[in-house]
Design goal:
Layout (H helix, E strand, L loop, with lengths): L1 H10 L5 E6 L2 E6 L8 E5 L7 H14 L10 E8 L2 E8 L6 H19 L13 H11 L6 H10 L31 H13 L4 H7 L1
Parallel strand pairs: 3-4
Antiparallel strand pairs: 1-2, 4-5
Helix pairs in contact: 1-3, 6-7
Length: 213
């Protein structure tokens, strides 16, 4: 797992990027290399507490650990073992990797892990997307008028729009200020493959597919 995670970080510039705030502007730095180490949480005997409950509590706590955006890497991997149950927690900040990018990273991570287990050198079918090029193209697009038509369209459509509060019809389950909760559900291999196929077909994320469903 250490080898696979290092491979992903070495391969993708976004994982080696840092964000810096200076004089009211955001700057991006990318280091050539950073050593990474997956973290481990091992609980041999969960006692009387159900394993799913304990895994949920651990995931909630790990999610709250801060990520320093000015120091690479842009994410972390935590391998959790509770009794005979294993779970991998991957946290990557949305400022540097979006949902679609997360799929690409996880595909590469899975491939690199399989290669490492088999004793093979990691191999990929495509070249990684350059984060430097992405940042440069986005910066240029802000000033060359490329976005003008899109901005004008949305300004026209949203002209006069006002904010409102939606009142739920089931107040026992939600309400203003609700902090939300974590839902854990295990899909079958067939369902997971179907969700992945739909996401790729429509250039969206698994979350987008589930939200649409």
């Amino acid at each position: 797992m250490r080898s696979a995670w290092q491979t992903v970080v070495d391969r993708h510039e976004a994982m080696r990027a840092g964000l810096h705030h200076r004089d009211g502007e955001i700057f991006v730095s990318i280091v050539d290399h950073v050593d990474v180490e997956p973290l481990r949480i091992d609980i041999d005997d969960p006692g009387t507490l159900p394993v799913d409950t304990l895994l949920r509590q651990i995931a909630g706590e790990v999610q709250e650990w801060p990520l320093a955006l000015d120091v690479a890497p842009a994410g972390r991997v935590v391998a959790v073992t509770v009794g005979d149950t294993y779970e991998l927690l991957v946290t990557i900040h949305h400022a540097l990797v979006d949902g679609w990018g997360m799929q690409l990273l996880m595909d590469d991570f899975a491939g690199a892990y399989a290669d490492a287990v088999a004793g093979r050198k990691p191999a990929f079918d495509t070249e990684p997307v350059s984060f430097r090029d992405h940042v440069s193209q986005t910066h240029t697009a802000r000033t060359d008028g490329r976005w003008d038509a899109s901005l004008a369209y949305w300004r026209e459509k949203l002209d006069g729009a006002i904010t409102t509060t939606l009142v739920a019809d089931r107040h026992a389950y939600t309400g203003t200020g609700n902090t939300g909760g974590m839902v854990r559900y295990a899909f079958s291999r067939e369902a997971a493959a179907g969700i992945a196929a739909l996401a790729q077909q429509y250039f969206t994320t698994p979350f987008g597919v589930l939200l649409a469903a």
